[in-house]
């Protein structure tokens, strides 16, 4: 016999002056292979057309459906109800700007962070559209590819104690992005250049190293390794700077 699921869902429309944040309960019969994506769509179609949440790919690729599921950030489209108790609480991701109910704006946050970290390849080479593509060592290419798998869902930022305490903290996804350029041989930035950006409390030294970020990352990115790598690199750069003076 199928279970009856009880959803406690956060409701609030910041655009509506009369709206008050509250939890609303919905009941739904569980079906085979039901994901939270399916459940939320059914709730919207059958019970409340005003329920606001984001989805795009339904395949764990776009990162739009991240929300707090029973207290833990995760992707709704990749979460099966069978893996959850019958009582399910859904909240929007903290840290990001709330659009309404379960929908948050992660885009503005990521754009600002990537601007701060200058998240593009810095090179003095002039682009030549006729030149033959340059080869890259396979091992380095795979290392970069591994770090490029971030889908910008925001789960790591929402699980981060430092990001909750200070809104200027870059967060694990942005620091992982910096690590991606550090290993890229095309980027001509030096350790001192990176130190200028992340060698501070808003960057790598603000990280408390408790690794909530890696625990919740739906793409299983090696955030622990990258944060450790950057911390060592920036620590050594700081010591070199002291002796340079
Ligand atoms: S390890 Fe650092 S970045 Fe990750 S959750 Fe903890 S404080 Fe945030
Ligand atoms: S590092 Fe992981 S949790 Fe963080 S934004 Fe990227 S995919 Fe999401
Ligand atoms: S809808 Fe794209 S990751 Fe869930």
TrEMBL record:
Its cofactor is [4Fe-4S] cluster; [2Fe-2S] cluster; [3Fe-4S] cluster. Coiled coil: none annotated. It holds the Pfam family Fer4_8. The keyword Iron-sulfur applies. Residues 141-170 form the 4Fe-4S ferredoxin-type domain. It catalyses: a menaquinone + succinate = a menaquinol + fumarate. Binds 1 [4Fe-4S] cluster. GO terms for biological process: respiratory electron transport chain; tricarboxylic acid cycle. Keywords: 2Fe-2S, 3Fe-4S, 4Fe-4S, Iron, Iron-sulfur, Metal-binding, Oxidoreductase, Tricarboxylic acid cycle. It comes from the Bacteria. GO terms for molecular function: 2 iron, 2 sulfur cluster binding; 3 iron, 4 sulfur cluster binding; 4 iron, 4 sulfur cluster binding; electron transfer activity; metal ion binding; succinate dehydrogenase (quinone) activity. Gene3D superfamilies: 3.10.20.30, Alpha-helical ferredoxin. PROSITE patterns: 2FE2S_FER_1, 2FE2S_FER_2, 4FE4S_FER_1, 4FE4S_FER_2. Its EC number is 1.3.5.1. Residues 8-94 form the 2Fe-2S ferredoxin-type domain. Part of an enzyme complex containing three subunits: a flavoprotein (frdA), an iron-sulfur protein (frdB), and diheme cytochrome b (frdC). Belongs to the succinate dehydrogenase/fumarate reductase iron-sulfur protein family. This is Fumarate reductase iron-sulfur subunit.
């Amino acid at each position: 016999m199928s279970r009856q699921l009880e959803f406690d869902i956060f409701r609030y429309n910041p655009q509506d002056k009369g709206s008050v944040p509250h939890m609303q309960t919905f009941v739904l019969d569980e079906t085979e292979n039901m994901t939270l994506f399916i459940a939320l769509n059914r709730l919207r179609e059958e019970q409340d057309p005003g329920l606001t949440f984001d989805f795009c790919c339904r395949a764990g690729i776009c990162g739009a459906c991240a929300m707090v599921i029973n207290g833990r950030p995760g992707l709704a489209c990749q979460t099966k109800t069978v893996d959850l108790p019958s009582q399910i609480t859904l909240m929007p991701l903290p840290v990001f700007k709330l659009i309404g109910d379960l929908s948050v704006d992660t885009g503005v946050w990521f754009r600002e962070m990537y601007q701060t970290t200058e998240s593009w390849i810095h090179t003095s080479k002039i682009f030549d559209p006729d030149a033959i593509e340059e080869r890259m060592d396979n091992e380095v290419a795979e290392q970069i590819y591994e770090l490029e798998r971030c889908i910008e869902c925001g789960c790591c930022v929402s699980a981060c104690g430092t990001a909750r305490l200070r809104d200027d903290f870059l967060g694990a996804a942005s620091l992982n992005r910096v690590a991606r350029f550090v290993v890229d041989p095309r980027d001509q930035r030096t350790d001192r250049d990176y130190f200028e950006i992340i060698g501070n409390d808003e960057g790598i030294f603000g990280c408390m190293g408790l690794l909530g970020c890696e625990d919740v990352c739906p793409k299983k990115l090696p955030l622990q390794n990258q944060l450790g790598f950057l911390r060592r690199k920036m620590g050594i750069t700081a010591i070199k700077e002291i002796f340079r003076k």
